[in-house]
Amino acid sequence: MTTYLEPTQERAPLRVRIAAPSPSVFAVRLGLAGIVLSALFMTNLTVTAWDRMSILNTTMSDYVFVPKVGWMFEAALMCMAVAGIGVMAGLAAIRLLGSGLLRFALGLAVLGSLLAAVFRTDLGESLSTSAQIHRYAAGVVFFCVPIAAFLVARQLTGVGYQARYRKWLYANVIVTSAVLALFMTSHFGVMPEMLRELNGLFQRMLFVLELILLGQIVLLPLRFRAPAAAPVRIPAQRVR
Predict the structure, then answer these.
(1) In Å, how far are 88, 114, 118, 202 from 121, measured between CA atoms?
(2) Is 20 left (phi over 0), alpha (psi -120 to 50) or beta?
(3) Interatomic CA distance for residues 80 and 99, integer angstroms
(4) How far is C-alpha 236 from the chain's CA centre?
(5) pLDDT per residue as tens digits for the range 118-169
(6) Cα angle at 86 between 208 and 114, to 5 degrees?
(7) Is residue 215 domain-resident?
(8) Residue 92's domain spans which residues?
């Protein structure tokens, strides 16, 4: 009797490429929603109180005393905190948040926004404990947002396709820092009297610029190309 044996075949080794984690779209939407709502609330307050409060020499904190719509000031700050949370979640999704100074700066910005919303300022020159907490918390936000944006831009050094984004981020950090310096010097009476009368205008410009910075950072996960994972080699298999 003749026995026929089937030839043994060997498959070529397979290479499977594991997909890199995708950015958190929910975090981007959360951050954008917070930014847009914060801008809308503050714009509505400005328009409503146009005849009551001058945008040149009154601070935005006094919006809380506008009848019927004063709550929108606190809501705007709450939404800014939500935007900060969205920024942190988005950066964590693309592994740029880390555990160092960037996380600390964004965490302080979120906490400062919440404290500034919860604790009100006072009308007049005398400051209560609540007004002092509000003032220092707002100052923390104004300083921490441009610091966080600078740290994000620095992490993108050497990433070729993000070169233009990085330059725009640096440019907005410089402009925001300049307006912050104008606001702080006018707020503490260092500037000439004529420029001190523009304290409210400087603060409103600063608020808009900080929202723009948050918007730039929150959109980064959509522009970020995660590095492809290394291919995994699967051993060859014998087929009989």
Answers:
(1) 28, 14, 10, 18
(2) beta
(3) 22
(4) 49
(5) 998 887 666 788 889 999 999 999 999 999 999 999 988 877 778 888 899 9
(6) 65
(7) yes
(8) 22-223
